[in-house]
Amino acid sequence: MIRRLLVANRGEIARRVFATCRAMGVETVAVYSDSDADAPHVAEADYAVHLPGNAPTATYLRGDLLIAAARKCGADAVHPGYGFLSENADFARAVIDAGLTWVGPSPKAIAMMGSKLEAKALLADVGVPMLPTAVEPEQVDTFPVLVKASAGGGGRGMRIVRDRESLAEAVAAARREAASAFGDGTVFCERYVERARHIEVQIMADSHGNVVTLGERECSIQRRHQKIVEETPSPAVDPSLRDRLCQAAIAAARAVSYVGAGTVEFLLAPSGEFFFLEMNTRLQVEHPVTECVIGVDLVRLQLVVAEGGPLPFNGPPPLRGHAIEVRLYAEDPAYAWMPSTGTLHRFDVPGVTHAFGPLPGPGLRLDSGVADGSVVGVHYDPMLAKLIAWAPTRAEAARMLSNALARARFHGVTTNRDLLVRVLRHSAFLSGGTDTGFLDRHPEVFAPLLSSVDAVRLSCLAAALSGAARRAKSATLPGLPSGWRNVPSALQTVVYEGPTGTIEVGYRLDRSNDLAAWAVRRIDPEDIGLPGAALDPAGSPDHPPAQILSATGDQVVLDVAGVRLQFAVHEVGPVSFVDSSEGSVTLTELPRYPLPVAEQPEGSLIAPLPGAVGRVLVVPGQRVAAGELLLTVEAMKLEHPVHAPTDGVISDLRVTAGSQVESGALLAVLTPA
Amino acid sequence: MPILNSALDPRGPAYLDNREAMLERLTELDSALRQARGGGGEKYVTRHHARGKLLPRERIELLVDRDSPFLEICPVAAWGTDYPIGASVVTGIGIVEGTPCVIVANDPTVRGGAVNPFSLKKTQRAGQIARENRLPMINLVESGGADLPQQAEIFIPGGAAFRDLTRLSAARIPTVAVVFGNATAGGAYVPGMSDYTIFVRDRAKVFLAGPPLVKMATGETVDDETLGGAAMHATRSGLADYVAEDERDALRLARSCVRNFGYNLAKTYGPEPKYEADDLLGIPSADLRVPFDPREILARVLDSSEFDEFKPAYGQALCTGWGAIHGHRIGVLANTRGVLFSAEAQKAAQFIQLANAAGTPLLFLQNTTGYMVGSEYEQGGIIKHGALMINAVANSKVPHLTVNIGASYGAGNYGMCGRAFEPRFLFTWPNAKSAVMGPQQLAGVLSIVARQAAEAKGHAYDEEQDRTMRFMVEHKVEQESAALFLSGRLYDDGVIDPRDTRTVLGMCLALVRAGENDANFGVFRL
């Protein structure tokens, strides 16, 4: 029996495993890097061991440190979670050699499935359908193809190539990325199926020879090969197809004498054919949807199996209803999925009834690695949380999920929330028309969620009014009406940087704190403070009539043309987060008195996002041509190129390979030729 | 504390008539304020903006803390005179970095911001407020100096402005001058006498004599910048402490000066009255001969409408008692029936002494027609008793605030702390009037005196001429007793909307209380 278990991971998956441990009476051990010292997963564990440093290679990828940590705390088992060392056969072996229980399949099974090329050869022999594959780029004869890392997973290093010309560069980049991410630069090319769906089968096998399938999951909605919406059952899978998929999955598992939780991934072509993609020898991120409709705790089953126990069933359990999961990422879909970092000042999803374990009945489950005040850094995956809805039907689950997301408050970092809501409400999604090209074909889902122009205006007004209401707490004459004048002249003004640009809000309250006048307009930041530019209090307003029903420092209730609207205002320094049923707006107040600032030299090249400088291909004084690749910034698994905007000479170079840079940092200066 | 019970019937004809009359007066006030805000008129405002400059009120709005109150003082100065309403300068009390400051801003759209006799009085009144209440003084300077054709009325008394400025400094009340444009000749001494000076680059021009006069005097040919630009004063003469990049930057610098003063205003709260301030419009009688109960006003001004009346059964024509406004304790003296008798005068004198013993500021709500006349009262010593009250008011050491809510006639004006008795602040309601006596009485007196003179000389009295004379006099006195007329002559600190009374008094009480603490400021440069 496992008495004390170390989770060699962080964030929501560590919390997920700990939750089941608690329920089963297993003691818990967490590990943490420098920046995770205050993370929730550390606080929730019975014991925690510090892994000095931040880079994954110094912390969560250090098998030796993890085993030492387990020993130090007297742990007798290790759960790897997903990612990091979860599919590292050497680590599994080291854990077992250290006399600890490894919660996962055998190192041999991991190794066989870990090499995609070997796995494909093995499984083709037992009749699992395969896509045509080439190991060398020269062998490719039909396009498009997908370049994949043999050791990879989760989309890292994957590239679609549509013509021979770009193949070499793509292969080279994929090799680099694979080498840096997995320590193995082997890549291969595979036929790329257009409009394919991603379907995977959850399997569970015990050491007594039972291999059971627990239904399929569809994870077709992906961004850059990373899943963001996952559901079960798949709208594209009927009982007969499910049966064939499950048979193939069982064949794959049996081929490697698999024990534990695993997932066999398939590509489903529009024709109904399906092909083996890979087998993940670990618990998947999206396992909660299976837990909902099957009614099991997969982590509990993992522990039971690791202890040598039998599975509690020997055939596939019935499916109950429909479950959908979304992955909430700290990233900006509208800006090339740019990762967003910073302090998560508020993280609140309404209506959530459960976390980190199966739902007892239809409802919402939230598995999150963050809490109010968490800092989202550059070192790890930007996934903040998973939100899962389980309902009798797919449409009900989608509605429940999109509504909870839309009403949630995520303050401090940009998230993909709006995109997720738009996907869940999209007619193509609701009719089951999902495939891996969904986002490319439906660019409309990238639009912000705000319902109208007036929503932005009213949110600005609400933010300003809550600021005005906060005067009641000021040290000087707090009891007097906000902004009182015996000779009113101009409106009180606040300038915000908001979703629609720079916005000036003007307002005047009368002696009873009612709204006597207001105006909101877009302005050119250069025009701020220009004489006479102040809002004309008598000017004809082009906005709906609004009255204040109540206003405090954190909530403003307006009557807008006869409809009562509530705005929650959360102010953090100069930033106001305004949430209402009309949507969420983040407003940054511009200083009333901007300080004179030094201007960046012309030709400055700026870091597009926070990260580490990858390759530096130029030296100071070097002449470069427009479009030439100068250097790369690596962040969040992706390599962001910095190209020369014009022909010119590198007159200043501020970084070297490996430099950590903040977003907006000066990288180099290019003097145009 | 007892809570005042209102007997007001807001549907009664008296209330509705009074309200209508008050709204009419408020419309007149609005129109005067609109003219004041208009400065030198659209043409000059547009020209000023086109030069990249802000209007005085725009400068003030940028200077003061957002959402903070701003009390403009004497906004309709020069009303009813040949000078523009507002007297080419905006003065008031605003909150800068949490610190209440007296702000004086020239209006360069009005004859180049030139100083006329009313500008001078208004500026001096602002200086007095700063001195009495120990408030930092911020001058937003852009003025061509004295209005030369009027120099006879300005030049000699005008020196007091500079004297007062440096006396503030000597009293350790900080002074800041922000120069946006011209500050020539005498004007140059405003920055010259200030503790902190901020000049706007390429805009400030500070010299004793401009290039034309220098050419005349010495033959030197020189440009504005060399003679008195911001850069020169910052690097050569040392007159400029800071150079600002533009107007907004100058106001930022002024705020950062004030931040260093380390001023602390006590944080006080007072519960709102139980009754609506809006009712105040219908309480004062449209016909001033009809008395009204000031307790109805107190019920809408005092914290929680609580009022502890002192000697309620004695001298009932004057109501005295204790209450609070925005958390500040005050003693109140309010006329209930216009006339002051001996008992009222004695009660007032006693009450003022009690307030002095307790160090509690006093609020005078004036609605008086004066001390009672007639042989019975003269024999009863009304002059003696009135003198007692005037003596107490004149020598009282606690801060006084006065609001004229109706009539302020005769010696009653003195006893109820009129302007000459230097209340810290004096405001007038739009319906209020003040004069030596009522217009009819005054005309009647003149008529009687003229009739007696005619009879003494044995002439027949011309009744027709008498009617004309009385009509003319009544009309003139009526006009000259009106709130706007008095405010135009700076006999008050402004005509206020009755609904703002609690706000205005709350702000003033906070200021007068803070001013009692001499240790508010640290050491600053002299």
UniProtKB/TrEMBL annotation, chain A:
Cofactor names: biotin
Gene source species: Dactylosporangium siamense
Keywords: ATP-binding, Biotin, Ligase, Nucleotide-binding
This protein's record includes keyword Protein biosynthesis: no
Pfam family, one: Biotin_carb_C
Domain annotation Biotin carboxylation: ranges: 1-444
Domain Lipoyl-binding: 595-671
Domain annotation ATP-grasp: ranges: 120-307
Superkingdom as given in the UniProt entry: Bacteria
Annotated Gene3D superfamilies: 2.40.50.100, ATP-grasp fold, B domain
Protein name per UniProt: Acetyl/propionyl-CoA carboxylase subuit alpha
SUPFAM superfamilies reported in the protein's UniProt record: Glutathione synthetase ATP-binding domain-like, PreATP-grasp domain, Rudiment single hybrid motif, Single hybrid motif
TrEMBL record, chain B:
InterPro entries: AcCoA_carboxyl_beta, ClpP/crotonase-like_dom_sf, COA_CT_C, COA_CT_N, MCCB/AccD1-like
Ranges where the CoA carboxyltransferase C-terminal domain occurs: 28-276, 272-521
Region forming the signal peptide: none
Residue ranges of every copy of the CoA carboxyltransferase N-terminal domain listed in the record: 22-273
Source domain of life: Bacteria
Single GO molecular function: ligase activity
Listed PROSITE patterns: COA_CT_CTER, COA_CT_NTER
Short name of any one Pfam family annotated for the protein: Carboxyl_trans
Protein name (Swiss-Prot/TrEMBL): Acetyl-CoA carboxylase carboxyltransferase subunit
Source organism: Dactylosporangium siamense
